[in-house]
Write a structure and sequence with these properties.
With 439 residues, the protein is α+β, with helices and mostly antiparallel strands. It has helices at residues 6-19, 75-91, 115-118, 122-138, 200-213, 231-238, 247-251, 316-322, 343-348, 401-406; strands spanning 24-40, 43-61, 64-70, 141-158, 163-179, 185-192, 217-218, 223-229, 258-259, 263-264, 277-279, 301-305, 308-309, 334-335, 352-366, 371-384, 387-392, 394-399, 408-411, 415-417, 420-422, 425-436. The protein is globular.
Length: 439
Amino acid sequence: MPELNEQQARALLEKVLRMSKADSTQINLGGGSGGNIRYARNTVSTAGVTTNQSINVTASFGRKSGSASGNEFDDASLERVVRRAEELARLAPDNPEWMEPLGPQQYLRTPGYHASTAAITPDFRAKVAADSILPSKNRQCVAAGFLQDSAGWTALMNSKGLFAYDRRTSVDFSLTVRTDDEQGSGYVTRDYNDVAQFDPTSTAAIAIEKAVASKVTRAIEPGRYTVVLEPTAVSDFMGGILGGFNARSAEEGRSYLSKPGGQTKLGEKLVSDLVTISSDPMNPIVPAAPFGGDGMARKPMTYIEKGVVKALNYDRVWAARKGVETTPGGGNMIMAGGTGGTVEDLIRSTTRGVLVTRFWYIRGVDAQTALSTGLTRDGTFYIENGRIQYAIKNFRFNESPIIMLNNIDALGTPVRQGNNLLPPIRARDFTFTSLSDAV
């Protein structure tokens, strides 16, 4: 499917908008192409290329709204989608939180598109797989990985004169390597907008070395340990933390930022002075789309500055109810680093602790404290006197990222992980509750 450029997308949206008979209308378009390759047990199992396009029309009569979608862009198909949305809108009950479509917005041009990624070929994907499989075989290991790349575009228009367009590329890679006897396991993941930054060989070597190093494990007693969390583990553990900065959930008593009587912890000290967390769609390492699904322009925001809560996200409905400015999220999470350097540097300055490659099967326990439970996986190691001494059996943990962020004593240099920018972290008194037999 050919990509629609900004002018083509605008023309198509204007045509669909003219078809609408509703009081107000919003139309979202999207499309793109990409490919993938999956392999397991040192053998490619699937590979393919996909293309897609879609349109979604939301029609409103007063406070009644209906939506319909399609994936064909000929005139007859487009009109069917519009009429279906209008039909559903007339049948719908009034929505007490309905908001009129936004008027025109000013958007940033975020640096999310790279021709290098859009030009990825099946040969390149096959080489990525080979760069994992062949060295794994040479070390008596078995590789299982997945590479997915995409180049896509989104556009929207509404009856209030708003128009938005964005295009971006992405490449995501994950690799698990296990020893032939399935006793040792290593893991690595990488994501980029620009595939030119991706080195498959050195990336695969990380998972292979972890697998070999964790082939023989020892059990140590559960308890509270100093932990060195690699950026992957930080992403696993803290990936949902910005959800707690939703003003509505905080004011309704449903988050770790809630206080009695509809009050919040805005302006209060929440975590260590070392912690600053922000969001910025223009960040060159982790650029985000310049607008959300309703077309609201994103902007940089600082949520925590030196441990103090500085901002909450107010969506349009809650902002109108509270009489404040709408403050949409920035589409990514950026955590400032410290002077700790790399993971290896943090290990060298650790007297006694546990290195965690990643967390797995994380489940929320208590939204008001952010308490979670889960398991370590794919490479957990015991540190003593600044060195990794040996691999250890995996743990189950019960811990809150808020407590962990209070117990930080060192931060490393942030790196891209899961479309966020996160540092490796060393923190005291991380609670491991029991041992796990999982590899």
